[in-house]
Write a structure and sequence with these properties.
single chain; binds pyridoxal-5'-phosphate; 2 domains; Aspartate Aminotransferase, domain 1; five-stranded mixed β-sheet; seven-stranded mixed β-sheet; alpha/beta; Aspartate Aminotransferase, domain 2
Length: about 375
């Protein structure tokens, strides 16, 4: 599929700010109001001329967030959810029992558990494939395949999947492609422009950007029949964000471009430092020329974001000790906020984890990169 020309006239940073300026209400406030009302009044004639009926179906704050998400990903429409997991759930629910999905084998851990524990019993059949290898994707496709679910770069192994290549194979087989774009965000990668049909987000991470609100999103390239099913699931099953969560996420979006660029640069500087340290076995960052996906990543994105991983020269206990010695990186799961975080993924993922025990995942926050490097240096030197 050819790459779509950039048809927007104004840049992403400008669109991100404008998306959050008040759309509803005539009080002319600069920051949008929060519409807590669950219900909206009918006209005497029976119409809903305000455009809203009941907040499970639609709400001004959610609609404004969905509008912003559509704009940022250059899609046809977007649906916002209570979490990234709820967005993925709704995507799978819009399929039908008997459908087959191909899922990247190193895609986000709890989405794989959701498939195994909820959607396989519900009737989906799932094949996990190494989506970084197009031959493996092709081999996994079956006549019943409706969806290929990829994540690039993947979390926490930072493997790179060829979006255009997967889309060509999937489309030839009659399937659609959903790409989890949580890590790079639309600032660094726009999967719809590379042939993906849907984008999945955990807005909990970079889009909201402050470690204080959960959320998820699906953005579609086309408002087609499948999308109508997604919308119906959202309305009927109600996995929606609250007005306040929508408002907080939208507020985060206003500074998305600046935060992601900063965190992307910091993470690369940290990765370059770690690659030179003798206590480090390997750095998993697509920005490094040694990374197997480096060239492909440079072709389809302008960075991987603030998240990457590295492997310590030692066993799981040595690795946990490195994490314990860090002072600026706080030991917590998640990423995308102002605080830099470190996580031993193998401990947090369950028995189905594919993450090595010597791996630490780092999320660069908004601190100074020099300070973060000094912190890593003292933690590794002390080993
Ligand atoms: C966090 C995350 C999710 C799940 O999102 P939640 O908001 O935690 O439910 C999905 N995909 C990726 C890549 C994530 O990082």
């Amino acid at each position: 599929m050819p790459i779509k020309p950039h048809r927007k006239r104004i840049s992403l940073a400008t669109r991100a700010v404008r998306a959050a300026s008040a759309l509803y209400g005539d009080e002319r406030s600069i920051a949008p109001p929060i519409f807590l009302s669950t219900t909206f009044e009918r006209d005497p004639e029976g119409e809903y001329s305000g455009g809203f009926i009941y907040s499970r179906e639609d709400n001004p704050n959610r609609r404004q967030l969905e509008h912003a998400l559509t704009d940022l990903e250059d899609g046809a429409d977007a649906a916002a959810f209570a979490s990234g997991s709820a967005a993925a759930m709704t995507l799978f629910q819009a399929l039908r029992p008997g459908d087959h999905v191909v899922v990247a084998e190193d895609s986000y851990y709890s989405i794989r558990v959701m498939l195994d524990e909820v959607f396989v019993p519900w009737g989906l059949s799932v094949t996990y494939a190494d989506c970084a290898d197009l031959n493996a994707v092709e081999a996994a496709l079956a006549p019943e395949t409706r969806l290929v679910f990829i994540e690039t770069p993947s979390n926490p192994l930072l493997r790179i999947t060829d979006i255009t290549g997967v889309a060509a194979l999937a489309h030839a087989a009659g399937a659609i492609v959903a790409c989890d774009n949580t890590l790079p965000t639309p600032v660094l990668q726009q999967p719809l422009a590379h042939g993906a049909d849907l984008v999945v987000h955990a807005t909990t991470k970079y889009l909201a950007g402050n470690h204080d609100v959960m959320g998820g999103a699906l953005v579609t390239a086309r408002a087609d029949d499948f999308w109508k099913r997604v919308r119906a699931q959202q309305k009927l099953c109600g996995a929606i964000p609250s007005p306040f969560a929508s408002w907080l996420t939208l507020r985060g979006i206003t500074s998305l471009v600046q935060r992601v660029r900063w965190q992307n640069e910091s993470a690369l500087a940290l990765a370059e430092f770690l690659a030179t340290h003798p206590a480090v076995r390997e750095v998993l960052h697509p920005g490094l020329p040694t990374h197997p996906g480096h060239a492909l990543a440079a072709q389809q994105s302008s960075g991987s974001g603030g998240l990457f991983s590295f492997r310590v020269n030692g066993d799981a206990d040595d690795t946990l000790r490195v994490a314990a010695r860090l002072r600026l990186f706080r030991r917590a799961t998640s990423f995308g906020g102002p605080d830099s975080l470190v996580e031993h993924r193998a401990s947090v993922e369950g028995t189905a984890s594919k993450t090595p025990g010597d791996l630490l995942r780092l999320a660069a926050g908004l601190e100074d990169a020099g300070d973060l490097i000094a912190d890593l240096q003292q933690a590794l030197d002390a080993g």
